[in-house]
Structure formats: structure tokens, C-alpha cells
Design a protein that fits this description.
By secondary structure, the protein is of the alpha/beta class. Helices cover 34% and strands 17% of the residues.
Length: 306
């Protein structure tokens, strides 16, 4: 059974991302005025090399993926684990499922990211996904230190320096989920946890770093102890949301994991607070529907489609 600590199905809300609600000191529930997590960075292609700004990085800190995974300053893989995961990646790539995975046609995006249409999934691409979905501690530290602020004093440039430590993994991983995954539809429902209970000023979160979701409410509840479970649905047709079904690749297929490199056009359709006496059948959908309508009217922030 997977260790629940630092699990990918729960996003950790760090202290500088939250502000304590002065009217709720007794309950110590937090309020989050800006509901977003992480930063997105861009590497490599001639298109992005021509762009300016701290989010556009010319190259990673290391020469190749192997050197990076073994020597980065965030989380170093043992050589034995690297070799075992590499063998697993090779076997998965040569499997029937692996051979069926081809890069999708997303118009100009294929050009921007340097990804040929119908390009077979590479071993390195498979490796980045396997490392994320099967190595809990690694994915936690890569996201926490390589994709997010550690304090409000951090600038985009500060985060970018840390992201360069995992630049090869990050770039390959992002392209794999985007081009080999699938687009969300308006009927999809995903579950993801937060490690603490929050009061929400907005109902449209923005995850700019990798996020794992599950199709199973029961699985989400197992990992969100003391926090909350978000029920997430695509905003409209989910044009900017792409996920990879990693169940066939995971050591834990029963988790029904759906992996996003980022998730932007989604809204919170329900919230469940985790307690010792949780009833997973209970929900707050009718209340959330009304609150989203108010959010849409006054802030034009959340898609109201009910």
C-alpha cells in the first residue's frame, strides 16, 4: 500500500499561499484569495527561445536527463533505482499499450514544442511519467521545490533557477502529458485533495504545476485526511485541459490516476470536508452551484453552466 505522506493526490497549501480568516480564529480555517498553485516554464524549441521573460528558460542545468536525475539539488535518484526504472520504461514502451501511444495533432503546438505528429512515445518520455507516478517522494519534492514559490518573497526568476535543476524531466514530462494524453470533456469528473480546510473566494483553481487526480472518491478520501476533497469538472469543453491515464503504467492501478501537467479551465463542482465521520455520499453541489453563479456574476471568474 502506498504511503499517504506527501501523496500526489493531495496538494499541500504552504503558509505563504494562505491568509488566516480573522473571523474564524477558533476553527483555524484558511481563506485563499488567489486560488492557484505553481508556475509554468518553457524550454528548448526555437519558438520559445525567441520569447523573453523569466518563464522562458534557455536550457536546463544538466546536459541530459540521466545526469540531471542523479545529481540535481532537489531529489537525487540512486543509480540502482534509475536503472530499474529505466528498464521498466523500456518494457512499457515496447508493450502493446506503449506502442499504441502516438503524439497527437494539436496544430501549431506541435511546431512550438518541436513534437512531430504521430511520433512514437520514447523511453525517456515513458521514464518521466513512471518516475512521477511511482516515486511519491520524488514527485513531491520536484513539484514543491522546482515548480512553486517557497515564500511570497520568491520571484519567478527564483523559481526558474530551481526548475532548471529538473529542466529535462520537466520539459519531457510536460510534452508527454500534453501530446500523448487526451482532452477533457464536459462530462468528466476528477477528484483531488487539499491538505487543509479552506474558505474559497473563487471556484476556479489554476494548477500551473503537475497535478494527479483520481476518478475514485474513495481513493481521494484515503489521502486527504484532515483536509478536503475537491470535485473538479472541465470548464466548457476543456480546450486547455489535457490528462494522461496512467493506470496501465502505475504500480497502483486501483488508484485510477489521471495525470495533468497543468489544469486551468476547470471549476469546483463540489467540496467534501474530511472528518472521522465522513459520509462520502453527502455533497454540497447545490450550494456550490449557487456560489459559482455569484462568482460568475460579480467576478466573471467561473464558468456557470448549470
Amino acid at each position: 500500500q502506498r504511503n499517504t505522506k506527501n501523496n500526489k493526490f493531495v496538494t499541500e497549501v504552504i503558509e505563504d499561499e494562505e491568509a488566516e480568516n480573522e473571523n474564524n480564529n477558533k476553527q483555524k480555517i484558511k481563506t485563499m484569495p488567489k486560488f492557484e498553485f505553481g508556475e509554468r516554464f518553457f524550454y528548448y524549441s526555437n519558438y520559445y527561445k525567441a520569447q523573453k521573460g523569466d518563464k522562458f528558460i534557455s536550457k536546463p542545468a544538466f546536459k541530459n536527463l540521466k545526469e540531471e536525475l542523479l545529481n540535481n539539488k532537489i531529489y537525487q535518484l540512486a543509480l540502482s533505482i534509475f536503472h530499474s526504472q529505466l528498464i521498466n520504461a523500456r518494457n512499457q514502451t515496447l508493450s502493446k499499450h506503449g506502442k499504441s501511444m502516438k503524439a497527437r495533432n494539436y496544430g501549431q503546438n506541435n511546431k512550438y514544442y518541436g513534437m512531430p505528429i504521430d511520433f512514437p512515445l520514447s523511453i525517456s518520455a515513458m521514464l518521466t511519467v513512471l518516475l512521477y507516478t511511482n516515486l511519491t517522494e520524488m514527485q513531491y519534492k520536484f513539484k514543491k521545490f522546482g515548480c512553486r514559490k517557497q515564500s511570497n518573497k520568491d520571484t519567478i526568476k527564483d523559481i526558474a533557477k530551481w526548475n532548471q535543476q529538473i529542466g529535462h524531466w520537466y520539459h519531457i514530462f510536460y510534452n508527454t502529458v500534453f501530446f500523448y494524453g487526451q482532452r477533457t470533456t464536459k462530462t468528466d469528473t476528477f477528484y483531488h485533495g487539499l491538505n487543509i480546510q479552506l474558505l474559497f473566494n473563487r471556484f476556479k483553481p489554476s494548477f500551473k504545476c503537475p497535478i494527479s487526480t483520481t476518478l475514485s472518491l474513495t481513493v481521494a478520501a484515503q489521502f486527504a485526511e484532515g483536509g478536503i476533497i475537491l470535485e473538479l469538472q472541465p470548464d466548457g469543453v476543456g480546450d486547455l485541459n489535457f490528462y494522461l491515464d496512467v493506470s496501465p503504467l502505475s504500480n497502483y492501478p486501483e488508484e485510477q490516476e489521471r495525470l495533468f501537467a497543468f489544469a486551468k479551465d476547470i471549476f469546483i463542482s463540489d467540496i467534501r470536508f474530511i472528518s472521522d465521520h465522513i459520509d462520502l455520499r453527502s455533497n454540497n453541489k447545490s450550494h456550490l452551484c449557487a456560489l459559482r453563479l455569484m462568482d460568475y456574476i460579480f467576478n466573471a471568474n467561473t464558468k456557470y453552466n448549470e
